[in-house]
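Long-time lurker, finally posting.

We've been working with ABC transporter ATP-binding protein (Vagococcus allomyrinae) and I want a structural starting point before designing mutants. I don't trust myself to interpret raw outputs, so I'm hoping someone here can both generate the structure tokens and explain anything notable. Sequence follows.
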Amino acid sequence: MLTINNFSKTYKGGKKAVDTISLKVEAGDIFGFIGHNGAGKSTTIKAVVGVLDYEEGEILIDGHSMRTEPLICKQQLAYIPDNPDLYEHLTGIQYLTFIADVFGVAANIRQERIKQYADAFELTASLGDLISSYSHGMKQKLAIISAVVHEPKLLVLDEPFVGLDPKAAVVLKQLMHELCGKGSAIFFSTHVLDVAEKLCNKVAMINHGKLAFAGTMETMLAEKAGGSLEDVFMDILSQEV
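Top reply, 14 upvotes:
Generated this for you. Predicted structure of ABC transporter ATP-binding protein:
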């Protein structure tokens, strides 16, 4: 569903934020992307979803190149940044309707999905209110609903649990499992390592722009017998790049 081959990104001034990383996310995967602040996670994610241009390497979404076929790629995915920008002059339902229109979701299907997800996130009663009146957590919930209203093949999230209350976090985990059960894939960054350990079947760890590990969670934890993902993370951070 997502293939990254030898991707690198160098910013003006010569700073290499990401250095030749390769990984593969397959249908049904919940794939965690882990690293310290400034490790290159957000740079990679922004390139994956087409927000950031790149010159080195290749990024494929369901077999299509993000560089040469960006529209086809973006039709297959949904992206939630760590601080989503919503159209605050719209009501919640107007925003969801707009997103459903963009992706061509039929009226009966969108109504069913919006009701299902808004009820699950306890947002139904607020859909008629202006987004400008929403709390940060409510905006995060709305962004999540808008991302899944067209059931993307690839859902990409940057720190999705930030700002969510514990109940909403549980609902999001259930939703992630539901989407993957239908054949989608999820690629997300997080600093909440205990959540990643329990939720993900695969994980990649990036350290100063270089890939330190990519594979199954089981293999990752085997790197440090009896340890947790947090133990492995701290061990990798302590190593020289």
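Before you design anything, note these points.
The CA atoms of residues 208 and 241 lie 7 Å apart.
Strands lie at 2-10, 16-25, 30-34, 56-61, 64-65, 77-80, 154-158, 185-189, 202-207, 210-216.
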